[in-house]
């Protein structure tokens, strides 16, 4: 029979899996009687673990959320994942959580078994963070406040600096936070403009909850990430063109990804809505498409493609 302390740890490990356990199942796993299981559950509760019990034939035990965070048991892969995530968060794009991340990282590293500590150290030592372009940092407390407002359907007021440098006061019904590449966005219903808007979180100033709650709204298309992608595309694309690609739409989507729009023509062709800040950039991007294509109605893009073709031809002549 397993000793009491070891048995409690094994019971806690079982309860931390996302499922309900019957008393009989736990008794079998721990090789004890159901009465001992009940006693061990009470010991866990006395240590601060909120173990919920559902009576009846279909009932069982499940670890719930309590008033305070109890100690957690992590397996090897979970411990490595959490450690690496904390390292990333300590130097990431969300300000205000660096110190807390470092404190948690220090505590975790102190108790890592040597084999796991070696794995984490190897990943940290032999992984190099690129010094390339980084996005603007956002305030962690503000991000948490916005997430809570989305959850509670509570209106927010804030100052906003748009891409043209103009400032305004906004009152919105927040819907979702979207992390896209290097930036964070808030998708919300703008009350004054009576329309959906996308706000860059780093341009939001002093967000304040109003205390007023609204019935939840459905974002156009039902997908907040796709809504942000379309909005980003609309702002950034100064030049647009429609291209007929000689490949199935699924293959083209796999290659180009979001936010490019693709429409099915038939089994072997699709319409690709391409865009960038110039025809030259679109022409350069199309050269990496990997499929034959036609430009039915864009003289500017045709000229850019001919210029690019001549440049390639000279490069290999």
Layout of secondary structure:
Blueprint: H1 4-15, H2 23-30, H3 34-46, E1 51-54, E2 60-63, H4 76-90, E3 94-95, H5 98-111, H6 114-125, E4 138-139, H7 140-152, E5 154-161, E6 167-180, E7 183-190, E8 195-200, E9 204-213, H8 224-236, E10 239-245, H9 249-256, E11 261-266, E12 269-276, H10 279-286, E13 293-294, H11 299-316
Parallel strand pairs: 3-4
Antiparallel strand pairs: 1-2, 5-6, 5-9, 6-7, 7-8, 10-12, 10-13, 11-12
Helix pairs in contact: 1-3, 2-3, 4-5, 4-6, 10-11
Structure summarized in a few sentences:
Helix content is 42%, strand content 26%. By secondary structure, it is α+β, with helices and mostly antiparallel strands.
Number of helices: 11
Which stretches are poorly predicted, pLDDT < 50 over at least 5 residues? none
Overall structural class, as computed from helix and strand content, comes to alpha+beta
| Name given to the CATH architecture of the largest domain | Roll
Gyration radius from CA atoms, angstroms: 27 Å
Share of helix, binned: 40-55%
CATH topology of the largest domain: SH3 type barrels
CATH structural class of the largest domain: Mainly Beta
Number of strands: 13
Distance between the termini: 80 Å
Spatial order of the strands in the main sheet?
A: 8-7-6-5-9
| Overall pLDDT confidence | 84
* Beta-strand share of residues: 25-35%
Shape assignment: extended
- What is the number of independent domains? 4
Order of helices and strands: HHHEEHEHHEHEEEEEHEHEEHEH
Largest sheet: 5 strands, antiparallel
């Amino acid at each position: 029979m397993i000793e009491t302390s070891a048995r409690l740890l094994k019971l806690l490990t079982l309860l931390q899996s996302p499922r309900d356990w019957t008393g009989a199942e736990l008794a079998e796993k721990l090789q004890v009687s159901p009465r001992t299981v009940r006693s061990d559950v009470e010991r866990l509760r006395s240590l601060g673990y909120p173990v919920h019990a559902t009576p009846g034939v279909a009932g069982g035990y499940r670890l719930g959320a309590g008033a305070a965070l109890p100690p957690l048991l992590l397996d090897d892969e979970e411990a490595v994942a959490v450690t690496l995530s904390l390292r990333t968060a300590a130097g990431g794009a969300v300000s205000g959580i660096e110190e807390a991340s470092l404190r948690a990282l220090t505590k975790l590293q102190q108790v890592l078994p040597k084999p796991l500590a070696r794995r984490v150290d190897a990943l940290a030592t032999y992984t190099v963070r690129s010094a390339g372009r980084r996005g603007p940092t956002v305030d962690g407390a503000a991000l948490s406040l916005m997430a809570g407002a989305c959850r509670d359907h509570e209106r927010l007021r804030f100052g906003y600096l748009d891409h043209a440098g103009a400032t305004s006061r906004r009152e919105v019904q927040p819907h979702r936070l979207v992390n896209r590449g290097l930036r964070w966005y808030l998708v919300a219903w703008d009350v004054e403009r009576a329309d959906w808007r996308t706000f860059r979180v780093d341009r939001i100033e002093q967000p304040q909850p109003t205390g007023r709650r609204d019935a939840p709204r459905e974002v156009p298309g039902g997908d907040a990430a796709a809504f942000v992608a379309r909005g980003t595309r609309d702002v950034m694309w100064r030049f647009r063109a429609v291209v007929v690609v000689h490949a199935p739409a699924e293959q083209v989507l796999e290659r180009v990804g979001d936010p490019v729009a693709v429409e099915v023509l038939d089994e072997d062709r699709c319409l690709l809505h391409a865009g960038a800040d110039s025809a030259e950039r679109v022409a350069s991007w199309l050269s990496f498409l990997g499929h034959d294509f036609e430009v039915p109605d864009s003289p500017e893009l045709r000229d850019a493609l001919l210029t690019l073709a001549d440049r390639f031809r000279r490069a290999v002549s």
